[in-house]
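Hi V.,

Quick status before I head out on leave. The structure for the redesign project is tokenized and pasted below; the design run finished overnight.
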């Protein structure tokens, strides 16, 4: 007789739907509560599909370090297949040789330190542009959330495509029939859609009837027309020659032309990689920035301390440049503390096991979907003293970092499938926060209270925009 299996603890499930009734509109909170009762490793069922939930740093380490190879697959997603050229991107492609080649292009060609550095001017110009816009408001109320979304959209657009496109921050150029910003918004929304058909294939008809799959197909066509235009424009410029800074489309066309990857790169792969940069890089970066500013507003002592550090570094009328950021350890601690309390993707991006494996002494079958609750891990009292408190000082010894080595802080995931955009995101966020708090003293408009409610989605950002009055710093 085969040995008896020892599965992880499971909350009671119902016929047909499994544990779906226990997941509310904020899945990271529902899963956190369930883990309080059933432990840091649980096996749930979404309809018939087994889903392993990890809610402690030890469980995350077992999955993303000890057994990283076995958990490096992504589960299939019908919507991603429809809008990402059949999952030809990096983030959603299954583990294997194709993913390995695409990830290496991402890490070595698009998001290397050197490449991220080459876009320093873009970040400094766009940050200065945001500061100028805020100055223009005088004593009127500024919607800082909107300006932050515009900043990250504009930076990613210029870095990836070479210029701003229609709607993203109001730049010129078109995005087909709808503005590019609008199309991108729909794209990110669809990525976060909970598709029951992925868990119970016999329910796929639901999304055919309610029109979600049809919407995804139309959106894919619209995005493809737009991206095809961008690629053709770049090819035209290539033929004309001339010196200019390479954007991501240029780099990918060069990789394709010179066979850098050692295998042919199809046109769809180029477009899928560009879409990944927008999908993974815009909403996440702006969410982190918005929460940092919110926590600083909520904690005036931390704001004062940061302003003192930043204002000590540079003269009153000079903008902060990236050279100044090395002298700002408290700024980096503020960003870490924000990402601990508000990981922009609280449940990370799902993984899937490719073999039977033991995790923390429990048996996990091949083909199990895995969700790591980074939100829960960031608030685990076993790792953090007074975990609900916003206290950047806890990082003052610089020992814990978010680069995937310290499993108590994993907003960017870890291991083979870990985020390749950490440097990129940190560069945008550090420069923006430093300049905002250097140039202005912020206050809430009269009679308005700071709201910290969240809105559900793939990324979890603030429900209500951050409305502030910004007074220029007078020393
Ligand atoms: C604060 C900002 C960001 C956060 C919180 C974030 C978070 C994440 C997370 C949690 C994952 C999944 C990791 C895993 O499975 O272990 C991921 C993957 C990924 N991220 Fe980021 N990310 C951010 C910014 C960016 C940026 C700016 C880019 C690109 C410009 C980027 C590109 C990617 C890509 C391509 C993947 C897929 C990697 C793979 O599947 O191998 N991310 N990110």
């Amino acid at each position: 007789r085969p040995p008896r299996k020892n599965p992880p603890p499971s909350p009671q499930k119902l016929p047909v739907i499994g544990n779906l009734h226990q997941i509310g509109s904020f899945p990271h909170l529902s899963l956190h509560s369930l883990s309080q009762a059933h432990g840091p490793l649980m096996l749930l069922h979404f309809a018939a599909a087994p889903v392993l939930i990890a809610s402690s740093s030890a469980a995350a380490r077992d999955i993303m370090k000890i057994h990283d190879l076995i958990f490096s697959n992504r589960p299939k997603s019908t919507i991603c297949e429809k809008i990402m050229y059949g999952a030809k991107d990096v983030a959603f492609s299954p583990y294997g040789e194709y993913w390995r080649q695409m990830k290496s292009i991402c890490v070595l060609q698009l998001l290397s330190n050197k490449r991220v550095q080459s876009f320093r001017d873009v970040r400094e110009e766009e940050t200065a542009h945001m500061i100028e816009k805020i100055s223009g408001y005088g004593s009127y109320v500024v919607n800082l959330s909107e300006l932050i979304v515009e900043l990250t959209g504009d930076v990613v657009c210029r870095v990836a495509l070479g210029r701003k496109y229609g709607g993203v921050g109001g730049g010129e150029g078109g995005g087909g029939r709808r503005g590019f910003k609008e199309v991108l918004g729909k794209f990110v929304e669809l990525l976060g859609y909970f598709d029951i058909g992925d868990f119970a294939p016999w329910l796929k008809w639901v999304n055919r009837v309610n029109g979600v799959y049809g919407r995804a197909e139309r959106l894919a066509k619209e995005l493809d027309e737009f991206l095809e235009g961008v690629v053709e424009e770049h090819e035209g410029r290539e033929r004309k020659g001339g010196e200019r800074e390479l954007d991501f489309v240029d780099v990918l066309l060069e990789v394709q032309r010179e066979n850098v990857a050692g295998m042919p790169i199809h046109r769809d792969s180029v477009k899928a990689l560009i879409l990944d940069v927008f999908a993974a890089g815009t909403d996440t970066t702006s969410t982190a920035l918005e929460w940092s500013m919110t926590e600083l507003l909520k904690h005036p002592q931390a704001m004062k301390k940061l302003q003192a550090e930043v204002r000590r570094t540079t003269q009153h009328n000079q903008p902060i440049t990236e050279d100044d950021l090395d002298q700002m350890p408290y700024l980096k601690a503020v960003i870490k503390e924000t990402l601990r309390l508000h990981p922009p993707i609280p449940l990370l991006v799902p993984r899937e096991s490719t073999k039977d494996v033991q995790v923390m002494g429990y048996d996990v079958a091949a083909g199990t979907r895995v969700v790591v609750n980074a939100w829960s891990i960031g608030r685990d009292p076993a790792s953090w003293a007074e975990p609900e408190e916003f206290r950047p000082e806890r990082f003052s010894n610089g020992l814990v970092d978010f680069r995937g080595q310290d499993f108590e802080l994993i907003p960017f995931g870890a291991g083979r499938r870990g985020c390749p955009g950490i440097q990129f995101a940190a560069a945008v966020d550090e420069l923006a926060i430093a300049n905002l708090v250097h140039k202005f003293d912020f206050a809430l408009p009269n009679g308005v209270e700071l709201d910290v409610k969240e809105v559900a989605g793939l990324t979890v950002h603030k429900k209500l925009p951050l409305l502030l009055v910004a007074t220029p710093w007078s020393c």
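Above is the designed sequence. The longest strand covers residues 41-46.

G. will cover questions while I'm gone.

Best,
W.
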